[in-house]
Amino acid sequence: MPELPEVEAMRGLLERHCVGCKVLRVISLEAGGGPLDGKFDSKVIGEGVGPQQLEAALLRRPVLAARRRGKHLWLELGGQGPQLLFHCGMTGALAIDGVERFSFQSFRVDEAWPPRFTKLQLELGGRGQEPTRLAFADPRRFGKVLLRQNAAEEPPVSLLGPDPLASPFPLEAFAEQLRRSAAPVKALLLDQEKAVCGVGNWVADEVLREARVHPAAPARTLSDGQLAALHRGVLSVLKRAVAVDADAARFPKNWLFHCRWGQGPSGAGVCLPDGSEVAFEDVGGRTTAYVPALQRPGERPAGAGEAASKPRPAGRAARKRPAAAGSPEQAEAMKRPAAAAARFRVPLRGAPAAAVDLA
């Protein structure tokens, strides 16, 4: 699936070749020789919009800007009418006739024009040269082409979490989202509506490796230091991938990206260039690559922060906090009768260790 770096590369393609042009022609019947050739794909071009509606909404309107949030991107069009929103799903991609195609790890947009499985074509002009031809192709049909009056303020874009590169991404807000959940930290990174958007399977694995955090660690067990390392990792991995237009051949050689594909949960004998062994597990339903010798479980002390996360009932007096282990108050209690010691929830001498409860 195209993730934030790949979608940002597509946004750049639209900005370079389409912004400043006007929509001259709209072709919404599938082309390129796929099984639905000559038909309108209402699964991809969704929400009941038909060929005539799509043409009426887009024709003769200028392209003012190409925008992105997370894995969604859209064309902001001038005049009256909606904006054109794309989501690539698993195998969707944009292509410009005469421009080198995007090549992703799991699929490549073919060089023919129009590419196979093309769902929508736009012909654009107005720059004083040959018209620009744009296509959206999607072999597996999990992508979407939608019309939105204000894409940024309407679902699905309005439901997304913060975009690390296109919107404010403060550490504290990110950390607070993770502290609230017992789900595996990787699952939280993949949830597009929570702590962050735009992170997919391969980006999440690179972030977790860089932060040295085990992907299956419950999010709320991470220490403040681990949360800060994750936040830095999100920004670092995304910025480096975007800086090379998501060209995998130019990714750092020590990234998991280069050895993760086709391994499955039983992958064995895979190592990074420095010799570190790479393991593969299923985490949150996704094949996950990680380095066991490097990535650690959560380091947050048991019970840390739990009291602060539970608001006290209104009008009820605050209960006295238990004395800290080793404090003078607790030492004095140990000299008192068992009932006094029990008040501090400290076991009598000789009691099994499991009886200790300082929660």
Automatic annotation (TrEMBL):
Family: Belongs to the FPG family.
Protein name (record): Formamidopyrimidine-DNA glycosylase
Coiled coil: none
Domain Formamidopyrimidine-DNA glycosylase catalytic: 2-143
InterPro entries: FPG_cat (IPR012319), FPG_N (IPR035937), H2TH_FPG (IPR015886), Ribosomal_uS13-like_H2TH (IPR010979)
Cross-referenced SUPFAM superfamilies: N-terminal domain of MutM-like DNA repair proteins, S13-like H2TH domain
Biased composition (Low complexity): 300-316
Keyword annotations of the record: DNA damage, DNA repair, DNA-binding, Glycosidase, Hydrolase, Lyase, Multifunctional enzyme
Cellular component aspect of the GO annotation: nucleus
Gene3D superfamilies recorded: 1.10.8.50, MutM-like, N-terminal
Catalytic activity: Hydrolysis of DNA containing ring-opened 7-methylguanine residues, releasing 2,6-diamino-4-hydroxy-5-(N-methyl)formamidopyrimidine
GO molecular function terms attached to this record: damaged DNA binding; DNA-(apurinic or apyrimidinic site) endonuclease activity; lyase activity; oxidized purine nucleobase lesion DNA N-glycosylase activity; zinc ion binding
Domain of life of the source: Eukaryota
Region (Disordered): 295-339
SMART domains assigned to the protein according to its UniProt record, in alphabetical order: Fapy_DNA_glyco (SM00898), H2TH (SM01232)
